[in-house]
Design goal:
The two termini are 28 Å apart. Helices cover 22% and strands 25% of the residues. The chain has 6 helices and 13 strands.
Length: 247
């Protein structure tokens, strides 16, 4: 299984990775390791894909899979609850061995941890959630000093492929005027948006400067990644993060 190892100076008890479409049992437009149960793939096949991932990672607990709705709600995982699917676009926990997930296919997946290795979080940042404050909500939920937080930006649609309209640019600039730097003129009333830079700007405004990743485009790598903008009906990858015992 081709997993992306998260390259960041996190504490040793923090485990994190990101999946690709390599391996898995899905076929057709979902070819590979589709982990999304909401995209029209055979539910039994998705279960097999998730079970394969659990086995590959040697997980002690089943991951928490969110019902993501492009909002800013954060799920606080304070206990292990089988078969719970919270409706939220971020999650946070201090529990050991409980993997949090974030599913994407162009939207920006963010993984968070603190330098003490005591709390981890995930966030799903499409443009709406990013604009409205899903990053800020996640950082508040972590309840640690911002300067102690590390963030990894996973694969997302790149700045040469993410075409948006005037209304998207205006919405970001209204919230954060410096966002103007993340938009490049493309054609009439259209812009190319750098979702990585938009996220970095929000993080830095919170006092978070330990930011890694942000250099991998889903749209331009069809063999490795699913992309909703490129293909329409497609599967989902996932970022996972969890805490283990700190020796």
């Amino acid at each position: 299984m081709d997993l992306i190892c998260v390259n960041w100076p996190a504490p040793k008890n923090v485990k994190a990775c990101f999946t690709t479409r390599d391996a898995g049992f899905s076929s057709g437009v979902y070819q590979g390791l589709n982990l999304g149960a909401h995209v029209g793939d055979d539910p039994d096949v998705v279960k097999r894909n998730r079970a394969l991932l659990n086995q590959e990672l040697g997980l002690r607990e089943k991951p928490i899979w969110l019902n993501q709705v492009h909002g800013i709600d954060v799920y606080h995982a304070v206990s292990v609850q089988e078969n719970l699917i919270p409706t939220a676009d971020a999650a946070v926990t201090s529990l050991l061995n409980l993997p949090l997930t974030v599913m994407t296919a162009d939207c920006l997946p963010l993984l968070f941890c603190d330098t003490a290795g005591q709390v981890v979080a995930t966030a799903h940042a499409g443009w709406r959630g990013l604009c409205e404050g899903v990053i800020e909500a996640t950082v508040i939920a972590m309840n640690v000093a911002p300067e102690s937080i590390l963030v990894w930006l996973g694969p997302a649609i790149g700045p040469t492929a993410f075409e948006v309209g005037d209304e998207v640019r205006a919405a970001f600039m209204q919230k954060h005027p410096d966002a103007v730097r993340a938009f490049t003129p493309y054609r009439q009333n259209k812009w190319l948006a750098d979702i990585f830079l938009l996220a970095i700007q929000r993080l830095q405004s919170l006092g978070i400067n330990k930011v890694y990743g942000g250099d991998c485009c889903t749209y331009s790598n069809p063999d490795q990644f699913y992309s909703y903008r490129r293909d329409g009906q497609t599967g989902r990858m996932a970022g996972l993060i969890w805490l283990t015992v700190n020796f």
